[in-house]
Amino acid sequence: MKQRAEEFTANKNMPSNFRFLVDPAYVFTVAYGLRWDAPQETSYPSTFVIDRTATVRFAQISKAHDGRASATDVMKALAAIGD
After folding, report:
1. What mean pLDDT comes out for the span 20-37?
2. Prediction pTM value
3. Reduced to 3 states, what is the DSSP secondary structure of residue 24?
4. Most Cβ neighbours (<10 Å): which of 9, 24, 32, 83?
5. Up-side HSE of residue 50: CA atoms within 13 Å toward CB?
C-alpha cells in the first residue's frame, strides 16, 4: 500500500499540508464503511478532504475503479479551504 501511495504522489506538486492516508490495518476503512467485500479487493477507492477542524469538505467514494476523484476536483476542494 505504501508503495502505491508513493507512486501516486511521485512527481506531483502536492500542497505542503497534504496528507495521504495508508491504512494497512483497515482502521479508517472500517470506521467509514469503505470495506469492499469482493475477491482481491480491500476497500472502495475513496478520497476525502478534511479540514483542520475535522470537517469533511469533500468526499468521493466509488464502488468501481473508474469512479475515482479527479486531481482537479481535489485541488479545488483544497483551494476552497485555504490555509
Report:
1. 80
2. 0.60
3. coil
4. 32
5. 9
